[in-house]
Amino acid sequence: MTEQPIWAAIAAALRAEIAEGARRPGDRLPTEAQLADRFGVNRHTVRRGLAALADEGLVRSRRGAGVYVAPRSTDYQLGRRVRFHRNIEAAGRLPEKRFTLIETRPARPVEAAALGLDETETVVASDGISLSDGSPIALFTSIFPTDRLPGMADALARVHSVTEALRLCGVPDYVRTSTRISGVTADAAQAARLEIRPGAALIHSESINVDTTGRPIEYGQTFFVGERVTLTLDHS
């Protein structure tokens, strides 16, 4: 029988502690030096064991702050009415959206096609990051037709909620008409923002929402962290 590498044994011991609840989501692991002392090995061996756990999505590193047990996967429902805050709260988590860009600009071809606009028309474009219990779970881009939603840019900047901003712009309800899902890998920029390694699995969704008259009001793209989100398709 082949003897288990020491780094794998370290990973197995920590994996078991996480599974048994001795180390809970959000807990900081001992430092590399402390783990090296515990297992009687050098830091390189410890680092390799931690890397194996990171590849499994069980732990994640925060630059300058150490290694932490990763949060449990958040269940996220996709159906006719997709609402970020409601979905995250239904999973028993604390939702947060941080907008990093809100601007008015000419529509790009794919955006114009999705929203039924002429390419000469303008849109309100917003980018940001979604968090669950303070952990980054997705990067999002939402595009809105300027003429159909006067004041949308100001509303988004004020309330930081798509649903509430749409309500302020005269859209009390809206529904999802299409969602396309594909698998991709994180590039360096995405990985840095989501606190994952480059090449980690992402779930890419592309969607269109319409108002109660059937007019497209939002074209969105979202990149979910595969190890932190479980998508559930609601057919009810």
From TrEMBL:
Biological process, per Gene Ontology: negative regulation of DNA-templated transcription
InterPro entries on file: Bact_HTH_transcr_reg (IPR050679), Chorismate_lyase_/UTRA_dom_sf (IPR028978), CP_lyase_PhnF (IPR012702), Tscrpt_reg_HTH_GntR (IPR000524), UTRA (IPR011663), WH-like_DNA-bd_sf (IPR036388), WH_DNA-bd_sf (IPR036390)
UniProt superkingdom: Bacteria
UniProt domain HTH gntR-type: residue ranges: 4-72
GO MF, one annotated term: DNA binding
Entry keywords, A to Z: DNA-binding, Transcription, Transcription regulation
SUPFAM superfamilies reported for this sequence: Chorismate lyase-like (SSF64288), Winged helix' DNA-binding domain (SSF46785)
Residue ranges crossing the lipid bilayer per the database entry: none
PANTHER family per the UniProt record, alphabetical: MANNOSYL-D-GLYCERATE TRANSPORT/METABOLISM SYSTEM REPRESSOR MNGR-RELATED, MANNOSYL-D-GLYCERATE TRANSPORT_METABOLISM SYSTEM REPRESSOR MNGR-RELATED
The protein's name: Phosphonate metabolism transcriptional regulator PhnF
